[in-house]
TrEMBL record:
Protein name: Siderophore-interacting protein
Record-stated family: Belongs to the SIP oxidoreductase family.
SUPFAM superfamilies with a match to the protein in the record: Riboflavin synthase domain-like
Organism annotation: Caldimonas mangrovi
Occurrences of domain FAD-binding FR-type (ranges): 32-136
InterPro entries in the record: FAD-bd_FR_type (IPR017927), FNR_nucleotide-bd (IPR039261), Riboflavin_synthase-like_b-brl (IPR017938), SIP_FAD-bd (IPR013113), SIP_fam (IPR039374), SIP_rossman_dom (IPR007037)
PANTHER family named among the record's database cross-references: FERRIC REDUCTASE, NADPH-DEPENDENT (PTHR30157), NADPH-DEPENDENT FERRIC-CHELATE REDUCTASE (PTHR30157:SF0)
Amino acid sequence: MIVDIVNYIAFSACLMNHTAPVRRVQRVRFEPRRRTAYVARTDPVGASFIRVSFTGDDLHDFQSLSFDDHVKVGVPGADGQMVLRDFTPRSFDATGRELTIEFALHAQGPASDWARRARPGDALMIAGPRGSFIVPQDPAWHLLAGDASALPAMARRLEELPPGTQAVVLVQVPDVSDRRALQTAANVGVQWVASGAEWIDALRALHLPSGEGYAWCAGEASLMKLARGVLIDQHRHPREALRVAAYWKDGVSAFHEKLDD
């Protein structure tokens, strides 16, 4: 495991001779490895997701240190060849060697088709994560915003935030049956919207809390590009306290991109 510490500057401007505290984002890199995991059970989550729990001896040294992590899973394509897709490790129990991943159930697609058919004992190739981008939990507030593809990461982050933390959550899901209870000890305000247009309008209308905060956004590429502009140009949120990821792009398969690097 290789660790890089990356400084990022104070989120608010320095005043007079007072220097704001420097916070640190920790980048942890892992040696690449492919593992074979086996389905332990499946559980539906709302109308459009299924949670698949995996076990297996290959998970003995699996690590996922951040809600922002992603692994690649290999599922059979229409031609029988392996197709790779990116997923968030929803949770990992090191003691029980159990990894949980949430699959979105699209109308069609190799990962969705595999998840619908998954039964206990079925094998799956899982690679990664290649590293973790660990965002500190101690900013005054956290913004978690995205579409349905970001729900597993947001839900994990909320579960990991300590009591008393302030969080603002903005989620776009087209089906109200996918609005779920989000478990957290944080003080959280959640806003659900149905469309991408509503989501970006709601992001523009947000009154972000005072103090040093960290904003994290993920979802469809064109919407995330707009979101980055809204946070930087309208809300004047510091780039150093911002993480924006394009988890998917309309009309493109296997797309994943960081927009804030």
